[in-house]
């Protein structure tokens, strides 16, 4: 069998259903093989958009999709979104073409060392050297991408190798349950819980994968211990649960930060150090920490756990739940956590009835979006000032219903990510929020959305500049550099790409506009002039919180 046909056959055996990409001459054989398969190819308008589509697909399904580019510039265009997926633990396969092996040793058209470039931003990067190795390479790639902690894997297939004969058939995928921690360590962990008086939980990215959320909720219902999630742990517990303390992760101290300060035991569940640096919540390095994760804790002066439950998170929490059911739990002192939840709820509703004209507060925009979306609908956030507002004010009922890039933190995800999300869940409402700077980084994918007739809504917060950078510069220096830029006529842009478009400048008109966009079949754009004067006001308010709890 031709090597490119074998490669596609192996992908099919692994359950790969989608390839997103921009092909080139050097992967023409693969593309023709793909056309004859049951795998769907989604043609993107830029390789970065393709990789963001694959990233959201992987985060939502737990199974990798493929993003594809040719050699040279195709590979370099992919890499930013690949790095984003890898650091945010989304399973992904990256497939790039390459020039023939007969010219890779010398200066030649578009030739560069792509594998070496991808090595730092993937779990594994490899060039296929022989057609008979393809079944092993694909099997290893998919297993590596899926294994905890999941991430991106890169495979390079040269144009001449793709044309050769491949002898060996695909390998049969075999999947195994991850082991949990042993009973002795579980007993040590439960002893920490028994001795604690005011424990608290930080739920991270791993808490929304592999059944972990279900066991975490059961644990909280038995113990009453409050849960604050990182930006990427949203939905690990329901927003309406009494033990939900919403989100931690802002640079400034929030209500939840003071509840964390008072805790005598911090239980981290699926927490990655990159999500919220320990120096911001444990500056003295003196917190008693129980680490529950698929992998051992990273080395950090401010994060040095007393006990680690390493292995399958759901199993570790199940074991603690069994201990709690058999031995009981103390009557913890959680009054501060309850007051924290109440204060946060009051904050969320503060601008629910805003009727400002000509500009809309971030709090109002997020309130209306949350009220309009259902429990299983999906919100995607970009990177910028809007991400900070979404992180604090938007909360979830279920895991993986709010996707925020927060490890590599790349701009440009919401539009292509929404396309990928729709292909996973066409029955759900998919809603993206981006700043004007973020949205225009992948604006070309508006054509992809229209061509595929995906049912998505994108809301753009317009301020005519890089708002997050100016916010941070003002906080540190009292002024900011020139960060302003111009924008298109948004409604003409929407019409030119065949989207429904609305420009909403008055707060009381926002919810009807959101409802109309969600009811529209096909892609919709809502643009609002955002009131980023609220950025500095939020900073000031957070600085005054200590005296109000």
UniProtKB/TrEMBL annotation:
Could you tell me which residue ranges the Thiamine pyrophosphate enzyme TPP-binding domain spans? 382-528
- Superkingdom, taxonomy of origin: Bacteria
UniProtKB keywords: Thiamine pyrophosphate
What biological process terms from GO does the record include?
isoleucine biosynthetic process; L-valine biosynthetic process
Identify the CDD domains for this entry: TPP_PYR_POX_like
Q: Name one GO molecular function term.
A: thiamine pyrophosphate binding
List residues of the Thiamine pyrophosphate enzyme N-terminal TPP-binding domain: 1-117
| InterPro entries recorded | DHS-like_NAD/FAD-binding_dom, THDP-binding, Thiamin_PyroP_enz_cen_dom, Thiamin_PyroP_enz_TPP-bd_dom, TPP_enz, TPP_enzyme_TPP-bd
Ranges for domain Thiamine pyrophosphate enzyme central: 187-320
Report the GO terms under cellular component: acetolactate synthase complex
Q: Which Gene3D superfamilies match?
A: 3.40.50.970, TPP-binding domain
The similarity annotation says: Belongs to the TPP enzyme family.
The molecule here is called Acetolactate synthase
């Amino acid at each position: 069998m031709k090597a490119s046909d074998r490669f596609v056959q192996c992908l099919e055996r692994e359950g790969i259903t989608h390839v997103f990409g921009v092909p080139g001459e050097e992967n023409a054989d693969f593309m023709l093989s793909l056309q004859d398969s049951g795998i769907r190819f989604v043609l993107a308008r830029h390789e970065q958009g393709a990789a963001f589509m694959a990233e959201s697909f992987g985060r939502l399904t737990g199974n990798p999709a493929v993003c594809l580019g040719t050699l040279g510039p195709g590979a370099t265009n992919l890499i930013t979104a690949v790095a984003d997926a890898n650091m945010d633990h989304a399973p992904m396969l990256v497939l790039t073409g390459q020039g023939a092996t007969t010219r890779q040793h010398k200066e030649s058209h578009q030739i560069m060392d792509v594998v070496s470039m991808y090595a730092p931003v993937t779990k594994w990067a490899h060039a296929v050297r022989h057609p008979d190795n393809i079944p092993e390479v694909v099997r290893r790639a998919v297993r590596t991408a899926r294994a905890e902690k999941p991430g991106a894997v890169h495979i390079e297939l040269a144009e001449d190798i793709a044309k050769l004969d491949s002898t060996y058939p695909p390998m049969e995928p075999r999947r195994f349950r991850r082991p949990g921690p042993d009973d002795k360590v579980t007993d040590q962990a439960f002893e920490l819980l028994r001795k604690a008086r005011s424990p608290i939980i930080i739920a991270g990215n791993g808490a929304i994968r592999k059944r972990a959320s279900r066991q975490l909720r059961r644990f909280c219902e038995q113990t009453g211990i409050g849960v604050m999630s990182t930006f990427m742990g949203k939905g690990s517990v329901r927003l309406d649960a009494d033990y939900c303390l919403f989100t931690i992760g802002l640079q400034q101290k929030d209500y939840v930060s003071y509840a964390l300060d008072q805790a005598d035991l911090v239980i981290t569940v699926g927490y990655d150090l990159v999500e919220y640096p320990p120096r911001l919540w444990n500056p003295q390095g003196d917190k008693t920490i129980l680490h529950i994760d698929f992998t051992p804790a990273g080395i950090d002066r401010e994060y040095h756990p007393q006990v680690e439950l390493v292995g399958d998170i759901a199993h570790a929490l199940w074991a603690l739940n069994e201990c709690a059911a058999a031995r009981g739990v103390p009557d913890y002192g959680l009054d501060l956590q309850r007051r924290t939840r109440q204060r946060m709820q009051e904050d969320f509703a503060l601008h629910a009835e805003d009727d400002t004209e000509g500009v809309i507060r971030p709090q109002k925009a997020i309130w209306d979006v949350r009220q309009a979306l259902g429990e299983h609908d999906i919100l995607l956030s970009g990177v910028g000032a809007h991400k900070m507002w979404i992180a604090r004010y938007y909360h979830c009922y279920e895991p993986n219903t709010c996707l925020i890039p927060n490890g590599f933190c790349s701009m440009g995800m919401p539009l292509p990510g929404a396309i990928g999300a729709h292909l996973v869940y066409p029955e759900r409402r998919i809603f993206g929020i981006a700043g004007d700077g973020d949205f225009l980084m992948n604006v070309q994918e508006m054509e992809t959305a229209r061509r595929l007739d995906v049912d998505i809504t994108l809301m753009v917060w317009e301020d005519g500049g890089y708002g997050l950078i100016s916010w941070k510069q003002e906080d540190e220096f009292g002024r900011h550099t020139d960060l302003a830029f111009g924008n298109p006529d948004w409604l003409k842009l929407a019409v030119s790409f065949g989207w429904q478009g609305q420009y909403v400048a008055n707060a009381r008109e926002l919810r009807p506009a959101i409802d109309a966009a969600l009811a529209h079949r096909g892609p919709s754009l809502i643009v609002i002039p955002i009131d980023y004067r609220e950025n500095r006001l939020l900073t000031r308010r957070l600085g005054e919180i200590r005296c109000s709890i």
